[in-house]
Amino acid sequence: MQKHTLFFSGRNSKKRGIFHTQTFKYFINFFAIVLNLYHCYYYDMIGFLLKKTLYDLWDNMFKIVVLNIGFFLCTAIALLPAFLPRLFSSTMYVVALGVIGALVCSIYLAMVSFTVKTISDYGTFTFADFIGNFKNALPSGIAMFFVLLLFFFVAIIVIPFYAGMGTLLGLILTALIIWLVIFALLSFQFYYVVYVRLGQNIIKSFKKCMLISLDNTGLSIFLMIHNILALMLSVVLVFMFPGPAGVILYLDEAVRLRLLKYDWLEANPGADRRKIPWDELLIEERDKTGHRTFRNFIFPWKD
Q1: Which positions ≥6 away from 222 have C-beta within 8 Å?
Q2: Would you say residue 63 has pLDDT above 80?
Q3: What are the distances in angstroms from CA 251 to CA 57, 222, 258?
Q4: Geometric angle at alpha carbon 204, from 127 and 192, rounded to 5°
Q5: What is the pLDDT of residues 121-130, one digit of tens each?
Q6: pTM (2 d.p.)
Q7: Preceding omega of 242 cis (within 30 degrees of 0)
Q8: 280 exposure class (CB count in 10 Å sphere: 0-12, 13-18, 19+)
């Protein structure tokens, strides 16, 4: 009897292994098809975006790493109770440090967004410039902090409440709120860079984020997936590179290039919004960015 059990168990495990392998292959093929279709439409813009971001990250690696270390130190405020449980055993201390840590991180990321803008614009910055951005970044950092609190409230209280109703109405409301949260995440990922580039007005920046996301849904989804993968890669490197600073730089590069589309549409009223001449719009950008070989990356002084 034991032999039969082992035999059938092995056969079932083999079947499950084949099923998981096929499922994984189907997922990879589906993702490749979606990516190819997306690149057919956005190839010039996306390809150049990835290239320019890579160049800028490489050229400013040390500064990006230092910015990420600063963010890590900010998150340490919220994580103090985990490292020193005896000193912060009270729930009140844990909540207070969590709130303070989230506020400090929000303001810090706002300062980073003001700072990395100079990199996107083919410039450079000093850490004195970073400190000098505190005043301008403070309003947007505080605003994003309250948005994060709202997300936390919705995730911890609102969604579980409606999901626990056990009724059709509760199910519909739960699904509706989840979709609203997804749309908000896709939109507000642009918030910091939109605030910096399109006028430092909190309300208008949030509105512009939503408009950009609605008008560029494919790009918004692509950027979100890319940033999640970038942060996953950052875990391997202890969030030193590319890290949060690299993600904000990537978003700033994307918004900056996307604005070329709206400048062109404004200069060409009545043009087809689905046929943007990216190859023409990116001529000057390509000239400024240039081209590098693998040898240029590793041994730039030899050329």
Answers
A1: 38, 42, 46
A2: yes
A3: 13, 11, 10
A4: 30
A5: 999 999 999 9
A6: 0.83
A7: yes
A8: exposed
